Each structure stands twice: as structure tokens, then as C-alpha cells.
Amino acid sequence: MTSTIAVARPEVRLATPVLECRNIGKEFPGVVALSGVSLTIRSGEIHAFLGQNGAGKSTLVKILTGVYRADHGDVLVDGEPLRFRDPRDAEANAIAIVHQDQPLVAQLDVTRNVFLGREITRTGGVLDLSTMRARTADALRQVGATFDADTLVAELSVAQRELAAIAAALVRKPRILILDEPTASLSDNEAELLFGIVRSLRDAGVTIIYISHYLDEVLDLVDRVTVLRDGKLVATMDVGETSRAGIVQMMVGRDIEQLYPKETIAIGEPLLEVRGLAQGNMLRGVDLDVRRGEIFGIAGLMGAGRTELALSLIGALPRSAGSVMLRGEPSSPASPRAAKREGFALIPEDRRHEGLVTDMTVRENLTLPELSRFSRFGIIGFRSERATATSLVERLRIQPPNLSQLTRNLSGGNQQKIVIGRWLAGDAEVFLFDEPTTGVDVGSKVEIYKQMIELARRGAAVIFISSDFEEIAGMSDRIAVMHKGRINKLFQPGEATPETLLYWASGSADEVMPNADADASPADDAATQMPSATAIASGAEMAASQSFWARWGTIGGMVVVLTLIAILAPQFLSLNNIFDVLKQGSVLAFIALGLTVVLIAGGFDMSAGAVSQFTTNLAAGTMIAGMGSAAAIGLGALIGLLAGAINAALVLVFGMPAFVATLGAMFVAMGATLLYNGGQALTLSNQPSFFFIGQGYIGPVPFVLILLLLATAILHFVLKHTRLGLRMYAVGQNLVAAELRGVGRARYATASFMIGGLVLGLAGVILASYAYGASALATGIDFLISALAAAFLGSTFNRAGELNVVGTLIAALFLASLSNGLILIGISSQALPGIQGIVLILSIALGVIHKRGIGQVLIF
Amino acid sequence: MSVSMTSKPHPSSAAVIGLLRDYGAILGMIAVLSIFWYLKPAFLTTGNIENVFRQSAIVMIMALGLTVVMKMRGVDLSIAQTADAAGLIAAMLIIAGYPVWMAFAIPLLFGLVVGLVNAVLMAYIGVPAIIGTLGMMFVIRSGELMATNGAEPQILFTLPRGVTRNFLWLGQRDFGPIAALIVLAIAVFLISFVVMRYTRFARYAKAVGSNVRAAFLAGIDIRMTFGLGFVIAGVLAALAGVALVSRTGIAMPRGAEPFLLDSFAAAYLGTLASRRGEMSIPGTLMGALFIGFLGNGLTLLGLGAPYRYALNGGFILLAMAIGALKRRN
Which residues share a beta bridge with A236? Predict the structure, then answer.
């Protein structure tokens, strides 16, 4: 259905369409996301896109901004049909978007984030930071932000990030500005401020497309609304033409069909009692009771805190306050595993990433949580496992009924049935269904509903979380509506309709007046369940103290260590010794610098040490052949660049994980080294000009140290003050955010590998000069660990914890002084590698211990 | 519905391509070995083959542990050093006159402890495995250097036969008709195969490797599972180290280090045996044997370590490129 209710009132100004969609269609495998959507956006209006989850709003916006390409239809800007290939094409047409989840690079400051992808530069790609900072400050003032442009995004609250994202859109001077759920994370005051900004932008001639679930604010703010439902356009109309109730009607659309196999089941005693449950800022005190045999609906829009409720019940998120009683006994599981033993079962919201293990078969997935039932002494009893899986497949009508099919290839409905089915073999009693029917076909939906009823009949408590208000109304007994982390309405069985649910879910919690013209307004006597007051520990404070320790703890530790050494061995601080240490440390520091550059955007580099060692040998060989220092340096640089290019090609062209590609390259470089030197040391003598590089002094200062400081300064400048460096960091730290700004990975990862390779190649030449030739030992991996230790230790000095060359330099020189000092105080040189290893582990452990993760290598 | 078959133009040629994709790499390995055989017929004599099997046994035992860790998206760079130190401990115990059973038990205990420390670091503290195990590798190396006073070899074969005979039996003698070392390798392989196919640990490990978040929410003890992988790798590495010293009769500090790279090569080459380019226990066996034959063939041709390194690296890259193509399909 694509009928547009045209509103042809004479007083409507005859505005020209600035943006027009004609018959837009978009399909994803198995889903028609949009079909036949035609609409026009007039110049200088605020136009809202409304619709339930899955209605197609986001897809439409992504087509308008070049993230997706439409399968059918045209997008016209000023009457010209345009094809956007990527976000930059949209930006070139002055279309800017503020994405819902504010993809920003946390480790960069606000200015750099705001201008990422559209940097202001002087000649040679040098960032014009003062101009950018001034404009960012302007934009921040315009949006009423109180933080300044130099703040790191990591230090901003969610609401402040939203403001930064809006500022980023504003500096692009858009003609069309798209705001996707901009108020979801803002407080009411902040939202009011935002509305003021939006209105003043409109008055300045900017056309605004506004997407929101919160109907109240939409009706106050916008000029026209377009309602989408199931990927089709329902209507576009003036806001004066419609009412909140009318819009709700259009968004929900049909009556409740006979889709819902609801049955009356005797409700038993209370099973789960939740009091004042809070979780960070997302869940602000929730009370609820769920009884045996009850299907308890929780209706709420995205960000209402529904998922946090489920996760904090099963111990997957830490609770900040509140208590839970299960069967009359306190329940606070420390992990989902403990929750499983208590009788909780979660069907998570994101089926593919949190529910299924898509690389496993139907059988393996179906028995995953209850596997201990089928095994004795750790050995799986395949016969009983298969029998259970077979009966579950039959019971849930999973298609195809093939136990050894990989779940990756199943349809959404069948995948979801498996995620549900695997809890049916056990004896869980509290079932948390979090959005179980998104992206699921109608047949599977009915199957899922039937399973919920079956569970309720068995005496389980079923908590049914959904933003599809039809199914919530159709399937639940009592229903709680969540909004901004609280329950703001509790419906008794039979009271709720999709309209009333949407009404409460999209309204603000402190709203008192029901809309007079809406016949869908809730009954006045319906008691709202008041949330308990909770003291929520400020997460920001905790983070601040953590980052203080992470940043100053290591530097303090280093100072203490060096002071101790100086006390125990006073000669440590003699000028001669200091310059000696700096000279020794410089060679390693060069390798560490090269590695740091690769780590910034390239992923990982196992080959760093081996490449340097290879060029050491080449340089020594070149000198022995009498070709002179220039040839040695040139060859080293060239081979380093080449190695970087090869690594980049392996990673980018073949899609190999950086670890493996560079591991292979490390082997090859080691082999090449041995081939070249035939297992013999290449010793140089009588090459004073070449030896000057590594061994010479200018005054009392070692020449190699001067070189090192120079190289660090250049690299620091490139990384921190040029467009290239900014984009390398962005790609390495948040690829999604970078790509949304039109900054692709290939170019900047290649730059990272090649610049790093160049430094590594030159480091090898310097090593040849420092060590009077090349040794026969394969020391590539030794260099690698020292360089890694320096790079990661150096990253802890930085306030964002990001890899940076200055930190690497300091850390490398520290490691050299540590080795020197330990030898001076009489510790065996044999202990040094171990001490380096411990320093490496400790410097990393400091940063990761609070993340509660496991040390998987995600770069494979 | 099923008439869509006709739209595929040449089903037979597609089948050939599919076969090549699945088995081409294995055919390639056989082709490489055939070239060696053609150039040096001695390559395929029984004596040489048994020799290669013995050599490969040690790499295989180490690589199997690595495979278990890597299937969970971990990595253990400390295995070669663990093997090295375990061998060293065994040799020092024999030299100091301790009973033979202790020369086997204490190194294995050492491997267990290393594995446990790794497990705590990676699985419970969350240190990235590349960094944590690299650090562990260097800690062990320091320990070895200090224990041997700067890498003095611990020589067993100059000791009286009576002292060393029982210890060297594992690496040098036969068990019935077959070399004891090969019997050990077969046993380790079979145990690993059974463990990684029929146990709950294997299932959990697979879940942790492919979707750790889903595994966590399904109530699996992901830390215990991930950590157990490092324990297995540590113990197997120690076993390999003892077997190595028992075979050669000498414990050279840092002598086992090249086995790290061989183990990686074996595990990655093993991905060629899988349709979807995954690591597997049989695949790693195959990879270890290929690495063994390759090294042996190169030695017979008079081509030494440089070629081994370069070819190992080249084969890893080749295996990964083919794996990427398989998954793209």
C-alpha cells in the first residue's frame, strides 16, 4: 500500500521538494525491508519518519545517506536523480546525519571526531587544528554543550556524545540534516535544548528529517510526518492534520489477528519478585512480581532498559541496586552459569550474536546449555543427546529437520526456535524472552508463542519482552510498560491494546495529562507502579579514578624503579652511563617506533623484528661489498617499504588476519636472512662514516639518539597533526565510525604498514652500524618482544591509552635503563628477558583487568 | 522447484572445481613430496620414513596443544620455551642422579604449572594471549639461562649407559616393532582426537571459539574452558620437550625454539584438510607430517634452515589464502 494522503491546503507554502524518493525498494536476504516508498521532503521543513521497529525507517535513512544502495527506485536531490555510492557522496550533496548510537572514535578528542573525514588542512595534509578547534567550539556552543573541543570523547557522557555528534553534523553545513533518535539518551532539559537548536536550524533554512519513537516531542516539533509500516509507506501528512492517536493507529495498523494462540492458564504463586533493581543509567529501579503460569509482558522501545533488566537478572550485567527473590529465596547469580543453576533461561535479543553459535550444528546448539545432562565423566553420550535433539526438532518443527545442518544457514525463524529449544530440555523455571520474534516469519512466530504457553502451563514464569506491541497485547497476561529505565505503567490482563502500550512506551514518564482527543488514552484508574528510589554509583567517577591509575600508575612505578636503582648503584646516574644507556636503547626504540606505527592502523605485526634483522644483514652485506652508506640506507628503506606493502597486501587483498599474515612474513624474512648470510655473522670493520650512525657522538650526545628524537618528532607530527595520521588512528580504533565518515580501511592500513615498514627497515640499518655488522643469531623474535613491551607500556602513558610514538620512545628508553641498572646493581643479564616479559604482562594487565574479558585474540 | 539445476551450466566441471578446492591443497602437498622422491629416491625408504615420523612426533605433540588453544581464538607462544625447559629439567634430574620416573613426572608438572599460570593470565585476568604468552616465553627463557649458567648444554649421551638407558628408551628404542616415540605420538594423537570430538570440553571450546558471548549467555564457564586450553598446551609441550631430549640425548637451552614456528606451520597447514578452512586435530597431524617430510627432503637435497623457514612461511600464507577463498565460496 503506497497511497500518499496528499494534503493540499491553500495556506501551505508552495515549498520546493529538496529531496524526493520515488518508488524506493530494498531487500535483504529473506526480508523485504522497503518496497514502493515514494515521498517528498520540502525545503526548510522538519519532517518526521515514524514507525515501529522494523518498519523500515533506518533502512530508508541509510539509503538517503549512501550507506545502503536501493534495489529499486530513485533518490532525487533538487530534482536531480543521484546515486550515492558511499556516505561521502551524500555529504557532498550537503546531507548530514546524526546516527542513533553516535559512532565516534573514543580515543580522539572532540575536534578530531567532529572533522574526521572532512578535515581542514594546510598544504601537505597538515591539520589546521586552530581553525578546526575554533569551528568545533562554535558548533558546540550552538548546541549548548558545556565541554570544550579538546575533551576526549571517551570522557564524555552519552548525552554529551550526542551533542558532539550533532556538532559534527553542523560543521558540515548541511542543507539536509537527518537526526536518528537524537533524544533517546538525553534528559528532558537536554532534549528541550536540542529542540531549540533544531528549530533555529530550520529557521536558518536547513531541512531536517527527524526520527523518533517519542511521539509527544515529534508532534510539538515537526511540520510533517511520514508513517512507515512493514517497509511500506502508510501516509505523509501535515502535523496539524493528525493527532497522536491517529498516528499510533497508523503505526500499528491492523487489529489483533487470530495470530495469537493465547490460552487461559491458572496463575500460581509468585515465583520471581524484583524490588528496586537498577543497572547503571539504563535501569533505574524496577519492581515486578511474576507468578507461575503467567506470561508477563514487558513492553518498551529500544533503550528503555528492557534488555538490561533481563541481563542483570541472570548476572550478565552487574546490578547497582535492588534485590531479587526467586521461589522466596534471594537470588543474585554471579554469572549466567549460576543463573542457569537457579533456573533462569535467557533467549537473548540479538539471536545471531548472543544466542546462536552459528558455526555449530543444530544438534550442538540445541544441547549447549544442558550438555551436562547428556554426559558422564565429561564424555558426551551421543545417543541420548541425539534423541533429545531429535525430539526438540520435532516439537518445534525446525526446518529442515536435519541435526547436522550448520545453524548459520537456517532462516531467522528456525534459528530462534533453536535458541528457545535448547532451554526446553532442562528444568528452568523463569524464561526471559527478549524480542523473540524480530525477523521471524509468521509460522515460526506462532510456534514460538505456543512454546511460551506450553512453558507457562508447565508452571514456569515467562517474561516476554518486546517492542512489537501487538504481540505483547495479544500474548501476555499482565503487562508492564518500560520507559527510560523505569516501569511507568502496569496493565492488568485484558486491559492493554497495542495503542495504549505504544502510547505509554513513547510518552515521558512524568507525563500527567492523558491526551484529551485520544480515545486510546489509558484508563485513569490504572495505577502506575512507582519505581523505587535508588542510589546509583556514578560510573563516571569510577572510570576517572581507574584512568588516573592507568595513566600515572605506570609512570610513577617507573620513577620508583629508576630511583631505587640510582640509590643502589650511584654510577647509574653518571652522565657517561646515561648517554651510554640512551645509545643502547635507541636501536631498540627505532624498532619499537616502527612497530607502533603498524599497530596503530594495521592490526598486528609479528614480522617487525625479523624484517629489521633482514635489513641489518643487507646493510652489512652492502657495506662489505663496498657500495657505501647511501646504498645501505637506501636498500634498507626500500626493503622495509616492500615488506610493509607485502603485509598490507596479504591482509587487505587476501583478507588474512594480520597475525597470520605477518607470522608468515616473519618466517619468510628469517629464511631470507639466513639465505643471505649463509648462517655467518657479517662483521664490518673500518667503515668510520657508516659507524658514525650508530656509534658516533656530537659533543657528548650519541648521534643515534639525535636521529631517534628526530624520527620520533617526525612520526609524532605525521600521526597527530596530519590528515593521514588522524585517519590511521580512526581506522585502527573504530573502523565502523571511520567508514560512516567515508574513511575506508584499505588506504590507511596500507599507509600504516608501509610507514612502519620504512622505519623498521631503517632501524635494521642503524643496528648494523651500531653492532659493527650483523650477528648470525636469529634474534627477530627477541626484538619483537622488546618492541611490543615498549609499545604497550608506552600506550599506558597516554590519557586515552592509545598507542603513540612518544610513549613508545619513553618506554623503550626506560626498558634500556632498566636492563642497564639491573646489571649495575648486580642482577644477572640472564634475568633480563624475564623481567621484560613481566613488565610486558603487567603493563597490559593494568589496562585489561577491569574489563572482565578473556584474552582471546580477536585479530585472527 | 528443483528445475533450477538446469541453470547451472556445467555441473561436472563445477564438481571438479569443488574437488580441487577441497582436496587440491592435499594433492599439492603430495606433489611437493613426489618431487623430493624423484630427486632423491632415498626420501621414501622405510628407514627415512621412520626417521621423519620420529622427528614429526615432537612437532605434532606440541602443535596439537597449540591447535586446542587456537581453536578457541587463543594463541600460545610459550609452548616451545616450555618444551625446552621441560627437557632441560629432565636432563638435569638424570644428571643429578634422580630416578627416571621423576625425570618424566617433574617436567610434566612444570608444564602443568606453566599452563595454569597462562590460564590465570589469559582466562581470568584477560591479558591478550599474544602478549601474555610472549611474556611467559621470556620469563621461562630467563629461568633456563640462570639454571644452566648461560645456556650450557646438559649432555646425557656421555653418561654411563646404565644411568640413561631407561630415560633414553622413549626416544631411541622400540616398543614392540615400532619406535616408542611413534607409539607415544599415536597415543597422544588418539587421546587428543577423542577429547576434541567426544567430550563436553570440546563442545564448549568450539562455542568459546566461535561465539564467546553466546557461550557466556548460555551459561558456559568460558573462563574455565579457555584456561583449560592453555593447561593442555602446557602439558603437551612439556611432554614434547622430554621426548625431544630422550631422542637426542642432549638438552640445549633454547634448542626447542624452532619448534614454535614449526608448530604454527603445522596447525595452519592443517586447515587445508578442512572444508571450511578450520583447524582440526587430524589436520594438525597432517600438517606436522608434511613439515617433517619437507624439512627432511630439504636436508637430503642439501638445502638447510633458510629454505625451511622460507617455505614454512610461504606455506602458512598459502594455506590462509586458500582458506579465505574456501570461506568466500
Answer: A226
- What are the cell numbers at B19? 574437488
Q: What are phi and psi of A53, to 5 degrees?
A: -55, 135
Contact with chain A for residue B269, Cβ under 8 A:
no
Q: How many whole angstroms separate alpha carbon A764 and alpha carbon A776?
A: 14
From chain A, the residues in CB contact with B131 under 8 A are: 788, 792, 840-841, 844, 855
In this structure, the dihedral spanned by the alpha carbons of residues A689, A693, A699 and A700, taken in order and rounded to 10 degrees, is -130
Amino acid at A285: G
Residue B29 lies inside a defined structural domain of this protein: no
B10 in a domain, yes or no? no
Q: For residue A651, is pLDDT > 80?
A: yes
Per-residue pLDDT band for A533 (boundaries 50, 70, 90) equals very low
Characterize A400-438 residue by residue with b for buried, 16 or more Cβ atoms within 10 angstroms of its Cβ, and e for exposed. eeebebbbeebebbbbbbbbbbbbbbbebbbbbbbbbbb
CB A735 within 8 A of CB A749: no
In a domain, B119, yes or no: yes
Closest CA to A580 of A812, A808, A817: A817
Q: What is the pLDDT of residue B191?
A: 96
Domain count, chain B: 1
Structural domains for chain A: 1-94+174-253 (3.40.50.300), 106-172 (no CATH), 260-343+428-538 (3.40.50.300), 357-426 (no CATH), 581-843 (no CATH)
What DSSP assignment string belongs to A304-355? SSHHHHHHHHTTSS--SEEEEEETTEE---SSHHHHHHHTEEEE-S-IIIII
Contact flag B313-A667 (C-beta cutoff 8 Å) = yes
Report the chain A residue with the minimal C-alpha distance to residue B146.
A830
CATH number, domain containing residue B78: 1.10.3470.10
- Average confidence (pLDDT) over A153-163: 81
Q: What is the ipTM of this complex?
A: 0.84
Helix (H, G, I), strand (E, B) or coil at A745: helix
Return the DSSP state at A69.
-
- Report CB contact under 8 Å: A664, B128: no
Q: Which of A249-263, A519-533, B140-154 has the highest mean predicted lDDT (pLDDT)?
A: B140-154
Three-state SS at A52: coil
Burial of B7 (0-12, 13-18, 19+ CB in 10 A): exposed
Residue B53's domain comprises 42-254
pLDDT of residue B255: 82
pLDDT mean over A8-15: 43
Q: How confident is the model at residue A6 (pLDDT cuts 50, 70, 90)?
A: very low
End-to-end CA distance of chain A: 47
Report the pLDDT averaged over residues A170-194: 81
Query: In sequence order, what DSSP letters do the residues of A364-431 get, joined into one string?
Result: HHHTSTTGGGGEETTEE-HHHHHHHHHHHHHHHT-SS--TTSBGGGS-HHHHHHHHHHHHHTTT--EE
- In sequence order, the β-bridge partners of residue B251 are B154
Q: Tell me whether B157 touches chain A (CB under 8 Å).
A: no
**Interchain proximity B131–A346, CB inside 8 Å:** no
Q: Is A162 helix (H, G, I), strand (E, B) or coil?
A: helix
Residues of B in contact with A378 (CB under 8 A): 199-201
Nearest-CA neighbor of A832 among A847, A817, A844, A842?
Answer: A817
Q: What are phi and psi of A321, to 5 degrees?
A: -165, 165
Positions of chain B with pLDDT lower than 50, given as ranges? 1-9
Q: Sort A698 into a burial class: Cβ within 10 Å, 0-12 / 13-18 / 19+.
A: exposed
CB contact under 8 A, B206 and A360: yes
For residue B150, being part of any structural domain is answered with: yes
Instruction: Look at A844 and B73 and tell me if their CB atoms are within 8 Å.
Output: no
Q: Identity (one letter) of the amino acid at A598?
A: V
How far is residue A117 from each of residues A105, A130, A542, A716, measured CA to CA in Å? 12, 17, 33, 20
